[in-house]
Amino acid sequence: MGTDRRSGFLRDSWIGATTLKKKHNMTIDWNDIDTVLLDMDGTILDRHFDDHFWLEHVPKRWSERNHSTLEYAKTHLYGLFHSQENTLNWTDLDYWSDRLKLDIPVLKQEVEHLIAVHPHVIEFLLFLKQNGTAIWLVTNAHSKTLELKMRTTRIGPYFDGIISAHQVGLPKEDLRFWGKLQNFISYEPARTLLGEDSEANLETARHFGIRYLIYISCYSSRVTPRRSEHFTTIDYFNTLIPIKGNRCVTIP
Ligand SMILES: [Mg+2]
């Protein structure tokens, strides 16, 4: 599945519930960072695709197949989705194809025109390349989702490598994930930056000791961005690119 979509509609209300805004300023000196880990859905790609797919398109197709109302399908499926949150099943297309008796990869292709790279992502990846920083895509997404998204966006070659949580055997929400990731990527937590649209994943990364944690507030082209109460927040990745001749940026 898309990675964070279904938690989004639960999480957004939680983020919006508080009006007290704490500041999480951060100064980044790119001399101090060797590795950048980037999440996929919502972070570099528009999560509107995933939200629309799981919250609208799948219930629509499920209701047609089961001769139910769309309202019933949504209530029933949202409950099923919720039951698998924070597990690898959440993003496992084979699991959902089997559980819902629908061909989920084919349904994804029906709405693949909604897959899009967020603004300023390519600019940021080119900056990192120029800087000599290692760039890894680290996602909870299933291999079939990855294949579709890499084919439609052609963004894969910008990365030194792509790691799916399904290879690691744990979702990023699991505290053990970031340590286990070191079996796949050699990285030093104190010299690593992680970009995520999931505060839960940033929290497990903080627990492991990843030093530079960035929350992406514009995770979907259809939502009004809100700052994180807990992490340094950017709307778009161009905020992390220093002006020419500089190596440092300060994020307000
Ligand atoms: Mg995400």
Q: Helix and strand succession?
A: HEEHHHHHEHEHHEHEEE
Gap from first CA to last CA: 33 Å
Low-confidence stretches: 8-19
Helical coverage, percent range: 25-40%
How would you name the oligomeric state of the polypeptide chains in this document? single chain
Count of alpha and pi helical runs: 10
* The CATH topology of the largest domain: Rossmann fold
Per CATH, the class of the largest domain reads: Alpha Beta
| Bound ions, cofactors and other small molecules, one mention each | magnesium ion
Largest sheet: 6 strands, parallel
Category from helices, strands and their pairing: alpha/beta
Integer average pLDDT: 92
Instruction: Please tell me the total number of domains.
Output: 2
Query: Given the C-alpha coordinates, what overall shape results?
Result: elongated
Instruction: Identify the strand order in the major beta sheet.
Output: 4-3-2-5-6-7
| Strand proportion | 5-15%
Strand and helix map with partners:
Elements: H1 5-16, E1 26-29, E2 35-38, H2 48-66, H3 70-83, H4 93-100, H5 104-110, H6 121-131, E3 134-139, H7 143-153, E4 161-164, H8 165-168, H9 177-180, E5 192-196, H10 199-208, E6 212-216, E7 232-234, E8 248-251
Parallel strand pairs: 2-3, 2-5, 3-4, 5-6, 6-7
Antiparallel strand pairs: 1-8
Helix pairs in contact: 1-2, 2-3
This protein binds magnesium ion.
Magnesium ion binds at residues 3-4, 39, 41-43, 197-198.
